[in-house]
Design brief:
The protein contains 13 helices and 24 strands. By secondary structure, it is of the alpha+beta class. Helix 1 packs parallel to helix 4.
Length: 582
């Protein structure tokens, strides 16, 4: 293969495969093991080292190679593809592509396109006696097609180029769908009537070639193929020579091309070969171009049809077995019923909770207990500093002694008005002293009942000020608990009062405790980024090891339902909401 033809062939491949950044074609030397660079794209590519590396990797593995998501110094990511090409057991070379990174897995599509493209390379190797002009004609034809923007323009360009290159009067291109052909483009004619008799006969000729899976040439006395439709065109419309070549993609017929000449000169073998090779290379491009212009719904329908065809065919045994197993699983799970249980995070609380608050404003002097400690009724929990109160009491006592002395002096002097004033001051001082004594009695904070401290640790706050009414401790009794379940808002509709369930605590995962729903709070609150409802449940036969604040997981029995619904109702609910949000 010449360098010029290799360069043209590689350029065509890069146009067919979308998002191609660079490519290289390496061929083997005489030893069949050493590779040398024959062509690269773009031609001014400065460094082909990374492409050479993927070529060598593919050659070492002796199979298609793929390196995804390779980061480069320019902050971009690329996918690399390498495909070794063999003619039987003889290595012809290796092609490597560098593509922009794509999230979707496109290995199958890229390698399928490369496999179809290298078929033409193999044909070229089999016909080395042909000169470069023969293959350059094909390359020129394909290049003209690839310059077009739309699928319709590609078809018209293909027909026009074939007409010019092969000296034809007319070239018709048809699509094969639903087991019959339809003419969709005619050379040098952008608009035409598909109902015309000639076009109907050309479509019949295309069907004739496709049904025989062969090229039909008229006239050809040596041919054993059926030519009835072709002969009818010659007889009725005066054409001297006809050539119909079917087009295939992915093993399926996608259409055909019919070439018509007026003079009675049959198409030469070289002409037939050129047409076959050109159509073999452009067929995958036509299929991809047409699919790309289809609506999304049509693309989805095509994919579904392909998958169904695979399932109904004789191949893909593993896929069929998997689908059959999935169908059986869905049927069985939709019939079998099980217990539907609502799962929610749970925390243990005492039925009664008391707070121990600061009776007066002051400074914290001592803290005897903290959260988690067990206390007895009357046990000292904390105390406040009494120095300020003692000083206040001494001050009031001094004032009281002064008032009493003044009272005696006023009484001995007979000053009745002053006696009444001082008497009132004495009463006020007595009241203030009594208040101070009562405050001194309250500086020691005692437990109101036997229980456990569930909140409060003042050991790190000694000497700090506290305000009157400030909560210092929370205490819960050692018996009588309730369970607080945090039920997700999507599941609250399944919860009713009186339902039973079970609780497993993180501290005792081997034990299960029965519970019963007692109360459902009607207001939701946010917890860990999601809306939950507070559901209270009673706990029967609580062991002594339980303590308020223990956490676990509760499950509430909410009836019976099919296993399929139990496993899928969350996803179905989310899907309904998502569809409704549109």
């Amino acid at each position: 293969m010449s360098v010029r033809f290799a360069q043209q062939w590689l350029e065509i491949v890069c146009r067919i495969v979308p998002q191609t950044e660079a490519a290289a074609l390496m061929v083997s030397d005489a030893d069949g093991k050493t590779l040398r660079l024959l062509a690269k794209w773009p031609e001014n590519l400065a460094d082909a080292a990374e492409l050479s590396a993927i070529c060598k990797l593919a050659l070492d593995k002796n199979q298609p190679s793929y390196m995804p998501n390779v980061a480069k110094l320019d902050q971009r990511q690329y996918d690399f593809f390498g495909l070794p090409v063999f003619d039987g057991s003889v290595l012809l070379g290796v092609i490597a592509l560098k593509l922009e990174h794509a999230v979707a897995d496109r290995r199958a599509a890229v390698f399928a396109t490369l496999e179809q493209s290298v078929e033409w390379w193999r044909l070229a190797q089999d016909r080395l006696q042909q000169n470069d002009d023969f293959y350059s004609s094909v390359v020129g034809l394909l290049a003209a097609c690839f310059e077009q923007n739309s699928y319709r323009e590609v078809l018209i360009s293909l027909g026009t180029e074939l007409t010019r290159m092969l000296s034809c009067d007319r070239v018709a291109i048809g699509e094969f769908k639903d087991n019959y052909s339809t003419v969709v483009a005619i050379s040098n004619n952008a608009q035409f009537d598909q109902q015309a008799n000639l076009l109907q006969k050309i479509a019949d000729a295309m069907d004739e070639a496709i049904e025989q899976d062969s090229v039909v040439v008229v006239p050809d006395v040596k041919s054993v193929s059926i030519q009835r439709a072709h002969q009818e065109i010659v007889r009725k419309y005066g054409y001297g020579s006809l050539l119909t070549v079917p087009m295939l993609h992915a093993g399926k017929f996608i259409g055909a091309v019919t070439l018509l000449r007026s003079e009675e000169q049959s198409f030469a073998k070289e002409t037939v070969l050129l047409c076959q090779q050109a159509l073999a290379l452009i067929s995958p491009y036509l299929a991809l171009k047409k699919l790309d212009e289809q609506a999304l719904s049509v693309k989805i329908g095509i994919k579904l049809k392909q998958r169904l065809a695979e399932l109904m065919g004789v191949k893909h045994f593993k896929v069929k077995l998997t689908v059959l197993g999935l169908v059986l699983f869905l049927l069985i799970s939709s019939v079998l019923r099980g217990d539907f249980r609502v799962t929610a995070d749970a925390v243990l609380e005492g039925k009664i909770q008391r707070v121990v608050a600061a009776p007066i404003s002051g400074f914290l002097q001592s803290a005897a207990v903290r959260a988690g400690d067990t206390v007895r009724q009357g046990e000292l929990m904390a105390s406040l500093d009494d120095a300020e109160l003692q000083l206040e009491l001494s001050k009031l006592d001094g004032q009281l002694q002064k008032f009493r002395r003044e009272y005696r002096e006023a009484l001995s002097g007979g000053d009745l008005v002053k006696v009444r004033v001082i008497s009132a001051q004495i009463d006020q001082a007595d009241a203030e002293m009594e208040l101070t004594r009562q405050q001194l009695q309250k500086i020691n904070l005692a437990a109101p009942f036997d229980g456990v401290v569930i909140e409060g640790d003042l050991s790190q706050k000694l000497g700090s000020p506290v305000e009157r009414g400030e909560i210092l401790f929370k205490i819960a009794p050692l018996e009588g608990y309730r369970i607080i379940l945090k039920v997700d808002e999507s599941l609250i509709s399944y919860i009713q009062e009186g339902q039973k369930g079970s609780l497993v605590l993180a501290s005792m995962p081997s034990r299960t405790f029965p519970l019963q729903v007692q109360k459902i709070t009607a207001v939701a609150k946010t917890d860990s980024g999601k809306n939950v409802f507070r559901v209270e449940a009673s706990l029967e036969k609580a062991p002594e090891l339980l303590r308020p604040g223990m956490e676990g997981v509760g499950k509430i029995a909410a009836g019976r339902a099919s296993l399929l619904w139990i496993w899928s109702h969350d996803m179905l609910a989310w899907l309904r909401l998502w569809i409704w949000s549109w």
